[in-house]
Amino acid sequence: MPWLALPYKEKHRKLKLWNKYRISNIPSLIFLDATTGKVVCRNGLLVIRDDPEGLEFPWGPKPFREVIAGPLLRNNGQSLESSSLEGSHVGVYFSAHWCPPCRSLTRVLVESYRKIKEAGQKFEIIFVSADRSEDSFKQYFSEMPWLAVPYTDEARRSRLNRLYGIQGRPS
User: Fold this and answer.
1) Which first-to-last residue range defines the signal peptide (predicted)?
2) 64-164 maps to CATH 3.40.50.720
């Protein structure tokens, strides 16, 4: 390993660090601000998996508008830029066709979404799929009246999952 490490015999320091940074399993990788010791990124393993070349370094939190930047889809195939969301309240919906609780929540969410839109509110939902195939994504998305991150944009879907620390579906 080309980085520094605690000496093996200093187990008490290891335990203090594990407790301070709430490490519960291995492997774990967090990124810290070296000056303050504050956590900059808690899910370093996902970051390295998604950005092995370090193109997005430094790996700190990014604002939503930066993470969502790019085209969004309507279920009729139309595309619009994420910048069109400015001034709106936005829900980000992490869901999947294969997930029964997701499908139940989607039905309820569709009704709420329609009522809010009919009331003239500036509100939008963005579907971030965890489907296992593009066909499943398309079938499930056809039931939704809102926007979606394109299924083929796996990097943006992954960045959104990291931004909000999504561990399960639905969220």
Assistant:
1) none
2) no
